[in-house]
Automatic annotation (TrEMBL):
Protein name per the record: Serine hydrolase
GO molecular function, one term: hydrolase activity
Protein species of origin: Streptomyces bugieae
SUPFAM superfamilies: beta-lactamase/transpeptidase-like
Domain Beta-lactamase class A catalytic: 23-262
């Protein structure tokens, strides 16, 4: 299948799954690329934790941050979430690097905000600007992001998020008012990490290791069900939003950065087809880039 035919196939896959989607894929070594809405501004949700992870390692590389530094996490005041520190009940003490692991592997919101408290949003935005990611900007911590959802949902609380009219007023779903990026920016960032351009080789290797430890197999990885193909990535989710960015590595040395962002009109929290199409679309794109 010619690369020029691929965007139509990707859009058809999105439509069949009931989502609106945007994608960019990049051959990290040759520079070959393709996209479907690659420059669309999108809500990053937890995908933005990748920008924070890179920031941490850039600061560590300059000596401004010690990744072994201990971090205290008391139970009071933790950012809410279903995983990691956010779901724990007792005081926790661990290193910066281990907090970063929880932030990425299980998308721990409390861990992310502990780290943002250490480095600040301005440092994250400086990192993305320095790397030339013009469409990428962090507006909120994760606690602040969820606070806007609670305020915008109103007195109905979480149950109101099943109402499409409530969904339309959530600032967290408006790229102009929340943490945002574009699919092309995210593959550019991943390419820089995999080529050791975002950090020193030591820190680039550490970032790649952590991305490879993500536990969620139901999105991008579902498109590559092979023992010898490795997928490393970061998901992001909000009401009606399902995202993942990652790198697919083949045993022949091929390395492909893929960013997929989706929205659906269906407000259900569980939509297996919407999750799976991220893997389907990524596979279509990578197959096209690998075609002779």
């Amino acid at each position: 299948m010619a690369v020029t035919d691929t965007p139509a196939r990707i859009r058809a896959a999105f439509a069949e799954a009931g989502v609106t989607g945007w994608l960019h894929a990049l051959d990290i070594d040759s520079g070959a690329q393709l996209g479907a809405g690659a420059d669309q501004l999108v809500c990053t949700a937890s995908v933005h934790k990748l920008c924070l992870l890179v920031t941490l390692h850039q600061l560590a590389a300059t000596g401004a941050l010690d990744l072994a530094e201990p971090v205290e996490c008391p139970p009071v005041g933790r950012t809410a979430g279903p995983t990691g520190l956010a779901a724990m009940l007792d005081p926790v003490r661990m290193s910066v690097r281990d907090v970063a692991y929880l932030m990425m592997a299980v998308s721990d919101n409390a861990a992310a905000d502990l780290l943002l408290g250490r480095v600040g949003l301005d440092a994250v935005n400086h990192t993305t600007q320095r790397l030339g990611l013009g469409g990428t900007h962090a507006v909120h911590t994760f606690g602040e992001l969820f606070a806007t959802i609670r305020r915008d949902a109103g007195p109905g609380g979480a149950r109101a998020l099943t109402d499409p009219h409530v969904i339309t007023r959530l600032r967290a779903l408006d790229p102009a008012r929340t943490n945002r990026s574009t699919p092309r920016d995210m593959t550019r960032l991943l390419g820089a990490v995999w080529r050791d351009e975002a950090c020193t080789p030591e820190h680039g290797a550490a970032i790649r290791r952590i991305l490879g430890l993500q536990v969620w197999p139901h999105r991008m990885a579902s498109g590559f069900p092979f023992d010898d193909v490795h997928v490393a990535g970061k998901t992001g989710s909000l009401p009606t939003v399902r995202n993942e960015v990652g790198v697919v590595e083949y045993p022949d040395g091929g390395r492909y950065a893929v960013a997929v962002f989706t929205r659906t009109a269906n407000t259900a929290a569980t939509l297996p087809a919407a999750d799976a199409v991220i893997g389907t679309a990524a596979r279509i794109a990578v197959d096209a880039l690998r075609a002779p």
